[in-house]
Amino acid sequence: MQKLPSLSFDDDGRIRRTGTLITTSAHIMTVVVGSGVLSLAWCFAQLGWIIGVLLLVAFAVITWYTCILLSDCYRSPDPVTGTRNYNYMQAVKVNLEGFKYKLCGISQYAIQVGASIGYTITSAISMAAVKRSNCFHVHGHKNGCHTLNNKYVLIFACIEIVLSQIPNFHKLSLVSIVATIMSFAYASIGIVLSVARIVGGTSSKTSLTGKPIGPDMTSMEKMWNAFSAIGDIAFAYSFCPVLLEIQDTLKPSPPENKVMKKSCTIGIGASTLLYMICGILGYLAFGNDSPGNYLTGFGFYEPFWVVDIGNISVVIHLLGAFQVIIQPFFAFVENWSREKWPGCKFIEEEYIIGKYNINMFRLTWRTCYVILVAIVAMMFPFFNSFMGLIGSATYWPLTIYFPIEMYISRAKIRTGSFTWIWLKLLTLICLIVALLAAAGSVRGLVVSFSSFEIFRSVS
């Protein structure tokens, strides 16, 4: 075997990183801008104009701030010249004690596994929506045109089995760029259709406080819906679990933390602008009766082919988002296996087939993982409620608590000082929000179980 030249490696002995401001910004937007952008109109309908807009801005600023703090944790002890921390868990281990390191691992991998299942379900619903859209066009809107989602779950899983053979985060740049383009495509379609509805004079009533309490909305229902909406907005920005993995793809010059801070500003800024436009225009178009997702929930029926393009874009985006969110978990399992069974050819040996490197362990276990995800997605079609619960349990530690605690430790912030107090207050407020969202998710699970049929997910 011919030895690669030394220029192909970075100073830590790993393959030279080639990431740039553009690729890392694309990774961020791939994770942040999900199909949930199409549910923001529903969130505004539950919260109203004032609270809806304020919360969207507040969580964008909070997430941006904690990401700026976290980007300085890529190297330790110095953020520019220190030793690299290749992932979130390693940064927590270096900066905080052992128990917090274990808590971080549980939180990080739970949200990644949960998200991969949630993405599978959402993609299947979007694929089913394409079939229903065509059916509505032919047979009319009064026809139910219902279809089982299981075959669409299997289609998504087959594609992911292939994509999951991408060996690591460093090879995902093209996937992320395509996924980012798709996210802006379906968000733009939602915007255009909303504007058309508003201009056409068919928009519905909105209000400062959202859907009013009345015959169709009890005060208790209003409260639970508001909790769910707060959770949807907060967790729309939860990409911190993969931030350091994204940062580890950057070239060492200019300094990674400086580039990452710019990427966070670009990614979160662009995503928030898109969120705001979609939420505001969607709410103006549908008012207090906004559907949970106005592409799959058929807020729009015509032109049917535009709705189809929007849903296909959602699927392509989630194919990439699945990889971006799950690659750290893949890496964790494979690195642990190498340490557990050193020298095992099945785990370590790479086979060159054409332009591709094939590892039998990677091929086997990642394929099994995607199959397992597909089975769970078909068994429990309401897994998005579980996802909300997992998200509410992990949003606070991963996006708020650990970045702030690592900053306090690194900067040696004195206990009781003004900075220490307001950082702790921010942590407490976000904890309360996460608990409220968790309560809404538990209630959603109870409702889902009441009409549950295993392997019977119907769109």
TrEMBL record:
Pfam families: Aa_trans. PANTHER family: OS05G0424000 PROTEIN-RELATED. The keyword Membrane applies. InterPro entries: AA_transpt_TM (IPR013057). GO terms for molecular function: amino acid transmembrane transporter activity. It is found in: Membrane. Signal peptide: none annotated. The chain crosses the membrane at residues 21-42, 48-70, 174-199, 265-286, 306-333, 363-383, 389-408, 420-442. Residues 18-446 form the Amino acid transporter transmembrane domain. It comes from the Eukaryota. Its main location: membrane. The keyword Calcium does not apply. Keywords: Amino-acid transport, Membrane, Transmembrane, Transmembrane helix, Transport. One of its GO terms (biological process) is amino acid transmembrane transport. This is Amino acid transporter, transmembrane domain-containing protein. GO terms for cellular component: membrane.
